[in-house]
Write a structure and sequence with these properties.
Elements (H helix, E strand, L loop, with lengths): L15 E4 L5 E4 L6 E7 L2 E9 L5 E9 L7 E8 L4 E9 L5 E9 L2 E10 L12 E4 L19 E4 L6 E9 L4 E9 L7
């Protein structure tokens, strides 16, 4: 809408590299830049998507949009997460105090696709996300023989209603190739500040 804070431009990321035997690289497709999930908390819509970073590798971008009504919708803040080099398929959740957690898959030329998370406390600087943590490392390469290859958008982040902690779910590469797994972990708050 006119006068509202615009979101930054986003574009389709290229495939993300990860190690493959014999020194070669395999690639996992991050697919496109559709919103992957959204949650409502304290008058704001929080959501995440895949987009291309400065090197065209995928990054996970998140948004907080103030949305007390459609006519007053505006961007409150957003941030980018690159993980070990590439981050993709983010899932977001927010607690009542405004602490946010984000689950995603991360990989690089030296890191197999791994399950990771990051987050931020409500009092952190706008747009800041804390250092990421890998909670389940990938154990091998992933390269399907079927084309087009499809890495699943299986990430999830859920608020535990019993104590306001979070449960993270993300996909990782397993063995033997091509094999994938999903891993779940209990997150009790944002990671430490870097």
């Amino acid at each position: 809408r006119p006068g509202a804070s615009p979101v930054r431009l986003f574009s389709r990321p290229r495939e993300t590299p990860h190690p493959f035997p014999w020194g070669a690289l395999a690639a996992i497709p991050p697919n496109d830049y559709r919103l992957l999930n959204a949650v409502w908390s304290n008058g704001s819509l929080w959501c995440g998507l895949n987009t291309a970073g400065s090197s065209s590798l995928p990054i996970a971008r998140w948004y907080q949009i103030a949305l007390s009504s459609l006519s007053t919708a505006s961007l409150t803040q957003s941030g980018d997460v690159s993980g070990s080099g590439a981050a993709y398929y983010p899932a977001i959740a927010v607690d009542a105090s405004g602490d946010m957690e984000l689950a995603f898959t991360t990989s690089s030329t030296a890191t197999y696709a791994s399950a990771a998370f990051t987050g931020r406390a409500a009092g952190d600087p706008a747009g800041a996300t804390r250092s990421y943590g890998v909670y389940e490392p990938g154990t091998g390469p992933y390269q399907e023989t079927q084309v087009p290859m499809r890495w699943g958008d299986y990430s999830g982040m859920a608020l535990d209603p019993s104590d306001s902690s979070f449960w993270a779910i993300a996909e990782l590469a397993g063995t033997p190739n091509p094999n994938y797994e999903t891993a779940i972990t209990h997150v009790t708050g944002p990671p430490e500040l870097a």
